[in-house]
Amino acid sequence: MKVPYTKGAIDDLPHPESGQKIYWFKERSGFGIRMTPSARSFIFEKRVAGTKRRVTVCKLPSEIDARFLKVAMRKASDLDSDFTNGIDPVAEARKAAAEAARQAEAMITLRDAFKRYADADKQKGAGKGRPKKPRTIRDIHAASERFKDWLDKPVTEITGDMVRQRYREIVAGADAARVKAGKAATGHSAQAELAMRYLRAAMNHVNKSSDDDTPIIRPKVIGHVGNLVPTTPRRKTRNISDGRIPEWVEAVKTGLDGREFGSVYRDALLFLLLTGARVSEVMGSAIDGYAPLTWADVDFESRKVTFRDTKNRSDHMLPMGEWLVAMMQNRKAASVSDVVFSDEAGRVPVNLRGGYDRIRDLTGIHATPHDLRRTFATVVARLDISEIKLKGLLNHIRVVDGEAAENESVEIADTTAGYVSVEVKDLREPMQRIEDYMLREAAEGAGGRAA
Question: For the packed helices 428-438 and 322-334, what is the interaxial angle rounded to 10 degrees?
């Protein structure tokens, strides 16, 4: 239906009770008014490059006058001219919006880039598509603090020279701390490399999150960051030397008596040595989202222990050797708590530092919980236990979803996947050999017993 383009005719048009009603004006083809239950707008419609386009010219106020109608008609004429000349206002608007979004994205600060990366779900590996672990988020935050003075800068202002200089500064600070502690400078820093890994990850996340084909951050800059990161992360290698394992074991068995949490420290440290477990899987970590090991996770009948929701997002089952079973049974008999490593009052220590610091004072052997894990792995290699079983013992393999609890079966997550499977029963004999070796007599250990 066509209507005159006059104030009176427009004011007489009724509002529909629902939806919309369109009226076209007699004075210009394609120019009309859209009426809804509560509003009215001028619109223009015409084909451009074979596609019909309808755009809003302007919204109408409650009161209109001749001047308003004149300006609206001029806008409709301009649109008509653009359409005739092949200019698609919808495409142009989308292009402008995309450019505005790109400009806004280019202004994202490094602080927001780190936050977006931390908040994003995992993109690969075990747990893909799930939120990052609390420990990972803490590590990302700690890495961002290495760039504290950059956090409010747009990421596009960070240059390769800035990155290289910051890497040198972090390494220099680490070497200065080593020299102050009486150690030799190394010219590298695991913390510097970790900071660069997370900086690169945050930058890559900005680029991958953009719908634009042109990267927000120049790949060359990200490449400079990547060049500072070793292909394989540097790892600490400290462990208890083979000849001193019996000395350390004896000190743990006898040197913690009478101390607060002494029995907890003793049993937990020996448990860590004999299983190679991560301390968070045993003692729990509220800040990292790990629950402590409970008696529900210890199966005395099958002589195995289960670590829940481990670092690689799976449950991990291990058989226990004879000595470890006996130790756990004694602990269970005296336990007043569901938590395995709690004291006679049911208390759980915040960490095991009071235990391993005491052993260091007694023997000079400084062994943190992760040093015990490395010691375990070193002994496995010394006993010539296969690499596949080593991965199974250290939980460096992927548990088949939903099957582990029933079938005790895990699958190697490397190139052997699909060909080799390791069951908990396959690890029982190696675990007993490891236990026997770890608990050998001190005199025998001093003699450097061969594997």
Answer: 80
